[in-house]
Structures are given as C-alpha cells and as structure tokens.
Specification:
This protein is of the alpha+beta class and about 210 residues long. Helix content is about 35%, strand content about 25%. The chain starts with 15 loop residues before the first strand and ends with a strand.
C-alpha cells in the first residue's frame, strides 16, 4: 500500500477584541496566548471619562483628603473631650459615621482615578455618535427636545445633561449619525427619537459642531 496520508490539522488561535460599552471606541487587539488573565482584567476594568470629569474627581478627592479628613478628626477629638463616655456620646457617634462615609468615598475616588482612561473630547470629531458626543434629540411623539452628552459612569449626572456610556439611551445612540431615528426602551415604554445634531465639547460650555 502507498504510504499513509498525513492529515494536518491546524488550529487557529483567535484574537481577542476588547472593546467596551457597545463599541464607543475601537478596542485593542490582544493575543490571549501572550496576555495574562490579570492584564486582560485590568483592560476590561478601565473607566473612560472626559478630561473635565477626571478633573472633577481629582478636585473632590483633594478636598476630602485635605479638608474633610482633618476636619472630621478634629470633630471627633472635640466630641471625646466633651464626653469620654463614647457609648452615650451622640456627637462622637455622628462624627464617626461621617468619617466612615468620607473614607469610603475617598477609597472609591482613588479606585476610579486609578482605573481612569481619560479622553480629550476636544480632539474628537466626526458626525458619528461615540463617547464624548453631545447629542440633540427630538422626541417624535411629543416633539420635546433633549440634549445629552455621553460621558463616563463616574461623571454621569442626568440633571446636568450627562448620561453614562453604559446607559440604555447611550448604547442606542452610539454608532448613529445625524437625522437617524433611535428607539430607546424607557420605564414608561419605548420612545423614538430623531438625532437632530451631533456636537463635540472643546472646553467648559463652548461647543463645535461637526
């Protein structure tokens, strides 16, 4: 018999694409054979935020460490001096509770800043909605106008027109362009919006339209 035929099986190792929040930006290409699980975890846990949002968190952290922490320590010391029976000292208990809240927030801020991926919105452009975009929407039912900026989770504040990149409305908007129609699931039912305008913040309240 002729020699045996050798069947070669090739195994193709795929590449892992890490991209967050419905592809608001392109994720890096990573070879899982060369990257440890710990490193992959760090990349996944990155927190995107605007330059202004990062500065706001830094300022809050500085205030809590430099002002609130010593103030609360002094308040506790004064409470002890007034009444050494700590179990019955209501001012001491209240000050300790406030101290725990402050220290908890400090730890939270330090964690978020350590994982921050700062994105300068002033350097972004285009008419496609992505992280950092300020979007003007019109409700097709009520004709009500809404303006939202898509930002990082730590800086999101709906009352100030800033929505998290992980929110349902942001996920629905990302990748859309001007004049597109978007359906968003809301607590009161689905809403349909039309994208009227896409803008990019330069600094403060100044805007430029693309």
């Amino acid at each position: 018999m002729p020699g045996r035929q050798c069947v070669r099986a090739s195994v193709k190792i795929g590449r892992l694409r890490l991209s967050g929040f419905g592809n608001p930006f392109s994720g890096p290409q990573i070879d899982p054979a060369r990257v440890s699980q710990r490193t992959v975890g760090k990349l996944i846990n990155k927190l995107p935020m605007t330059t202004m949002g990062h500065s706001a968190l830094e300022n809050e952290l500085k205030h809590r460490i430099g002002t609130e922490r010593p103030r609360l320590i002094q308040r506790i010391q004064e409470a002890i001096a007034d009444d050494s029976n700590l179990a019955e000292n209501s001012e001491y208990q209240a000050a300790k509770a406030d101290q725990e809240i402050n220290e908890g927030r400090i730890a939270e801020l330090e964690d978020k800043l350590a994982r921050a991926e700062v994105i300068d919105v002033s350097k972004l452009s285009g008419d496609t909605i992505k992280f950092g975009a300020t979007v003007t929407l019109v409700d097709e039912t009520s004709d009500e106008k809404k303006v939202w900026q898509i930002v990082g989770e730590p800086e999101a504040n709906a009352s100030k027109g800033k929505i998290s990149v992980t929110s349902p409305i942001a996920r629905a908007l990302i990748g859309k362009t001007e004049d597109a129609t978007v359906e968003v699931e809301a607590p009161g039912g689905a809403k349909i919006y039309k994208v009227r305008k896409v803008e990019w913040l330069e600094s403060g309240s100044s805007k430029r339209e693309r």
